[in-house]
Amino acid sequence: MNPLIELPLWAAWLVVALALCGGLLALTGSIGLVVLKRFYERVHAPTLGATLGMTLIVLASMVFWSLSEGRFALRDLLIGVFLTVTTPVTLILLARAAAYRDRIEGDAQVPPE
Amino acid sequence: MTASTVLFWGLGVAQALLLLAMLLAAWRMIRGPRAQDRILGLDTLYLNAMLLILVQGMRSGVGLYFEAALIIGMLGFTATVALAKFLMRGEVIE
Amino acid sequence: MIRAVLPHPLLAAGLFATWLLLNGPLSAGDMVVAFLVALIIPQVMRQLEPDRSGVRSPGAILRLASYVAVDVVRSNYAVAAIIMGRRRHIRRSGFIHVPLDLRNRYGLAVLAIILTSTPGTLWVQYDRATGSLLLHVLDLIEEGEWIDLIKGRYERLLLEIFP
């Protein structure tokens, strides 16, 4: 470990708890990616990691850097904002592309345009 | 238990969870069955890698990992958008 | 007059904050550069001519933010429960059409972010001509319930914010 960084014990536990919950959510999302049966169900799974999971890990990082540098280190907020804005774009594009392909192939479960 | 042992082991476990998440996403990417499943797997892989690197930044105490995470996030976004576009049209550059 | 210097005040403020956040500890030099960035970059946007956002009603923004914060946590839990195998067999997922009254581009963008950020709902396609939104829902119990939720909880507030 880096000897420069000395956090109070409660802060270390807080950071670890936040990061663990975030990691657990991201893992749940990935499990969903594997166990869910259809593509349109699977698209929902990664949003777990991309929303609450990401938020918790970013929070952990902000708490960690703010305490270890002794000032408000909020730059991780940028990752949070960036991901919140981009995840909908990727997922919407992907879902539209999938719906487009399924319509061409005549999948009856996808409603027509 | 000192704070640095708690951080070292606790964040290590969090990293293990994220690594497992990456492996599962990679499995979906390899298995498919269709192109959109693979792209979804790749996107999840990117996302989990980014989170893993953020945690690594805390664990090692090196602030530079933040930049790495930011770049991975941006590249992942661009890559997924380009690939989704490709699914729609069959050509990336129109 | 003020529009000539600051065509998009919100964008300028966002750029200023982003620059300062990226550059670590606050210093006078960074403040000056951030100020210049916030002044110059929006001038570039002038060429792209985006619509004015015209955000209103800060009270509605706060209320919407608190609703979304609660819903994100709740739906994360719900989807995690579905994935971890509880209620996997009685669940039905499917597409629904939601007729939207919201026409403002920024309002629709925010709605897209909200619906994607709450796991369990996925925005598939929006038809600008009819205002109909195609949504995929992971746990589709009652179609009307989802439509009421989106229209009553989010769209009503978004119509207040983006008139």
Q: What does this protein look like?
A:
- Chain A is built from four helices and no strands.
- The radius of gyration of chain A is 19 Å and the shape is elongated.
- Chain A has one domain (11-105).
- Helices cover 74% and strands 0% of the residues of chain A.
- The termini of chain A are far apart.
- Chain A is an all-alpha fold and 113 residues long.
- Chain B is built from three helices and no strands.
- Chain B has helices at 3-31, 35-60, 65-89.
- Chain B is elongated and about 55 Å long.
- Chain B starts with a helix and ends in a 5-residue tail after the last helix.
- The mean pLDDT of chain B is 86.
- By secondary structure, chain C is mainly α.
- Chain C has two domains: 2-48, no CATH class; 58-161, no CATH class.
- In chain C, strands 1-3-2 form a three-stranded antiparallel beta sheet, with helices on one face.
- In chain C, α2 (9-22) crosses α3.
- The chains are: A mainly alpha (113), B mainly alpha (94), C mainly alpha (163).
- Chains in contact: A-B, A-C.
- The A-C interface holds A 25, 28-29, 31-32, 35-36, 38, 40-41, 43-45, 47-48, 51-52, 55, 69, 71, 73-75, 77-78, 84-85, 87-88, 91-92, 95-96, 99, 109-111, 113 and C 18, 21-22, 24-25, 72-73, 76, 79-80, 82-85, 93-95, 97, 112-113, 115-120, 122-125, 127, 134, 136, 138.
Concise synopsis of the structure shown:
Chain A has helices at 9-35, 39-42, 47-69, 76-105.
Q: What is the C-alpha radius of gyration of chain C, as a whole number of Å?
A: 20 Å
User: How large a portion of the residues of chain C is in β-strands, by DSSP E?
Assistant: 5-15%
Strand share of the residues of chain A?
Answer: under 5%
Q: Give the largest interface.
A: A-B, 58 and 55 residues
Instruction: Please report the distance between the alpha carbons of the first and last residues of chain A.
Output: 56 Å
